Automatic annotation (TrEMBL):
Belongs to the CPA3 antiporters (TC 2.A.63) subunit D family. It comes from Wolinella succinogenes (strain ATCC 29543 / DSM 1740 / CCUG 13145 / JCM 31913 / LMG 7466 / NCTC 11488 / FDC 602W). Pfam families: Proton_antipo_M (PF00361). This is NADH DEHYDROGENASE SUBUNIT. It is a multi-pass membrane protein. GO terms for cellular component: plasma membrane. Keywords: Cell membrane, Membrane, Transmembrane, Transmembrane helix. The chain crosses the membrane at residues 22-45, 52-72, 92-117, 181-204, 224-248, 260-282, 288-306, 318-338, 344-364, 376-402, 422-443, 464-490. Residues 153-432 form the NADH:quinone oxidoreductase/Mrp antiporter transmembrane domain. It is found in: Cell membrane; Membrane.
Amino acid sequence: MEAKALAAAASNFSPPPLGGEWMTPIFLIFIPALFALLMPLFALMKIVELRFVVALFCLLLCLMPLPFLESIQESGVIIQNINFFSFFEVTLTMGFFELMFITFFSFVSFVISLYGLSYEALSAPSEDLRRSISFLLALAGSFGMLLSSNFGNLLFFYLFTNTSIYWLIKSNLGTEAARKIYLFSNFLSSSFLILGVFTIYQTLGSGDMYEFGANLKNMDRFSLYMAMGLFLLSFFVKAEIFPLNVWIVNLYKESEPQNVAFFSAVTTKAYFIALIQLLAIFFKLSPLLQEAMILVGGISMVFANFHALRELSIKRVLAYSSMSQIGLIIMGIGYNLHQVNEGIFFHLINHSLAISLMYLSVGYIARQYKGDDTGLLRGCSIAMPISSFFFTLGAMSLMGFPPFSGFFSKLLILKGFADYQLFTPILFIFLASLGEALLYFRIIRTFYSNRPSKLIKHTIVPNLMYASIMILGALVIYLGVFPSSLFFIVSSGVEEFMNGKILIPIGIRAFQ
């Protein structure tokens, strides 16, 4: 009864005025999409280059979530229901959890666009319009996935984001191979999700997640398990989760560094958070799924790092390392413990910062050396000391060395497992850490070799490139020295997550 009452209240909910105006969650999706559509107008005006407009807008976007903070603190969650033309319904839910990640994604997008100001200036500007539109649309789609509380909406924003990223790859310097890889992954993952959403509609007659959560016990079990399997397959492909993540290695190898940083830090994390929100329901439907996530995460952690030892391409190494970090996170989510989840979500943010720092640092080095193989980059720290230093800083953070941010998040995770006397995941973490150490110290030793390879091409590194990697590097150090400045925010988001107030509150409460 409580679940049905909450579902009815959600459908009639009208958000309170924020900052004196009727600003609602839909604006967080609508504004980036609107700016993307205005890009052709900016191009015709020729007042400023489009990449500057994108960077400025991403900076402003960092401030957009702030007016929602007071309302969320008062009401706990904002639910917005919109009907378009009587047949298309949009249901968005925003709490502190979603607000935290939307703000973070906006900031990282700004830093990446800052890097792109100089990197893209070194290439032909012919694709500048398509690149700018695709970047903003992918960001809007990522926000849409975070806020959706309707399966139909989730499918729409999922397909929207997939398509935008494909055009972003096509508009940049990525090769034809990268476009084909991503096109195939889009087809595969989108097919799974379309079938899963179709199954939900056929079984429930509606895509509303509140109603879905309220009626889980009364729904056909075969249809539910089939839908759950299709959803998991779809998001496993996009969220870099073993074993459906191997395609990402070649994509990251062939794509431009600012694209890869955006994929790894923003869009992949948006897919992943959407998956976590769905798992909040599916764990209650099938407790065995938690054990499966633990197993998948543990295998992914160890497999990815030790497989990366065979690689010579640093971009491919970073892709495998990213799989390992995602494995750690999915394993922690499988246990679904409060203290562990605090470390997991803190690490999710830390990984985005560190992996972006490393991709942006090595991206420009590889451009100068016409390749990213370790042998070719031997001794590159002599010619490019700043980029090499910040790459090393990111690697130290991912390995969990103090005083960098990765140390604190891994410490939280290990402490959470130790408090519950769960030693198997601790063993997996130490094995993965050993693989990471072997992996990254090999690269660092190569960078700082006293027998450098010949520098193929050298230009003065633009200041904005240095500014972007310095911002990320400073954050990695700051959050390692003063982790409490972020921890209280993450802790509030985890509290909301564990209490079932996020995307699918009724789906969790129905089983309590």
